[in-house]
Amino acid sequence: MMTPDTLIRPSDSLRHVRYEIRGRLARRAHELERQGYEIVSLNIGNPAAFGFRTPETMRLAMIENMAEAEGYCHQKGIFPAREAVVMQQQARGVTGVTAEEVFIGNGVSELINLVLRALLNDGDEVLVPSPDYPLWTAATTLNSGRAVHYPCRPENGFVPDPQEVARLITARTRALVVINPNNPTGAVYPRAVLEGLARLAERHNLVVFSDEIYDQMVYDGAEFIPMATLVHDTLCATLSGLSKIYRACGYRVGWAVFSGRTHAATDYLNAMDLLSSLRLCSNAPAQWAVQTALGGYQSIRDLVTPGGRLYESRRAIQTAVTGSRFLRLTPAPRGAMYAFIGVDEGELPGFDDQQFALDLLEQKHVLVAPGVSFNVPYRNHFRVTTLPDNATLNEVFGRIEDLLAGYASTQAAAGHTVVEATTRFK
Question: Residues 247, 54: contact at Cβ < 8 Å?
């Protein structure tokens, strides 16, 4: 019998599901904002929060087609949007794709859940990069699978080694996740590495999930190579959308495009169709912006070249880190909108990224994502977005340096105390 004190408990399936980017620290930041403090939130890549606008042509396309978007659309999405995605893939060298292999979702986030739910049985394993975008790990766990993290080591520029990945494959491995350009590190994978991962997936009949939401966001000549151009003898799902390149996070429009051995994946694609049907359809009005976005002027190029705002913000972070006694950024991010910054443990032994993030929020009113949020085994990194303007970034890194200098002073004082006590007892 229920009593007033009886607790309503959540599902056990959520016990190991984590998404710290919007977790405890973010909740504390909201509390501080309600108390009147101004918080600089660098934990999420949300362009609108820093003054970026969705291109006007996309806004007009959505408005002009609003009358066509008042009812449910096809569960896979409207045909003009899916056809525009097909044309983009074809222009990139991906063959054999039609609108039937394209699923429009409420952002890539929903599609990550759908592609895994359609595939996994209890205990199936998914190879996920470490560091990762943590939704991949959370969605694998939520759908009764097991995320097996393959290392993308800082000393290797956060680029994986296909041979290391190969050693993690077991009889239960079903899929390989590739995030390129990478979130959180900004790494852009070389062709040889991508080819090695593609051949590995083909040998073991693994589904490749290629998260390419930052596909055109590359710097200083870095080359983005679509995974679907390399994967032929197994199934490849390319996931992308409007959120980042087109600064339209709130539109909630993403897509999954299936290529490669689609003829051997009929049942799986039917399962995707079923799951898409169960949620009726994705956001209909915003889908009308897809054709205009993909076929129109690619304004992202103005932002990621010298003089562009994203390029210059990235450079401001590099300059701040170079001038820091405590911070390291090797290599510099070559893509995406983040910097995954290391703290020199030689200068600050025992550094703890979560305690640092909490102290930075409470004392300096800056919100960052601690590295442990991205499923890494080390505790000396944190992620910031490169979206703020240079003045904001300079202020933020000044506050970070002050906090770290305070840590160093405290450690030095504690060390002197230990030395003096040892001397007195000799």
Answer: yes
Give me the average pLDDT of each 10-residue run along the chain (426 residues): 73 75 87 96 93 96 94 96 98 96 97 97 97 96 96 96 98 98 97 98 98 97 97 98 96 97 96 96 96 96 97 97 95 95 96 96 96 94 96 97 96 64 40
Q: What is the largest CA-CA distance in the chain?
A: 87
Q: Say if CB 289 and CB 59 are below 8 A apart.
A: yes
What domains can you pick out in the chain, each with its CATH number?
12-52+302-424 (3.90.1150.10), 56-295 (3.40.640.10)
- What is 110-141 written as a DSSP string? HHHHHHHHTT--TT-EEEEEES--HHHHHHHH
What's phi and psi for 259, nearest 5 deg? -140, 180
How many other C-beta atoms are found inside a 10 Å radius of the C-beta of residue 356?
22
52 burial class (0-12, 13-18, 19+ CB within 10 angstroms)?
A: middle
CA pair distance 221, 39, nearest whole angstrom = 34
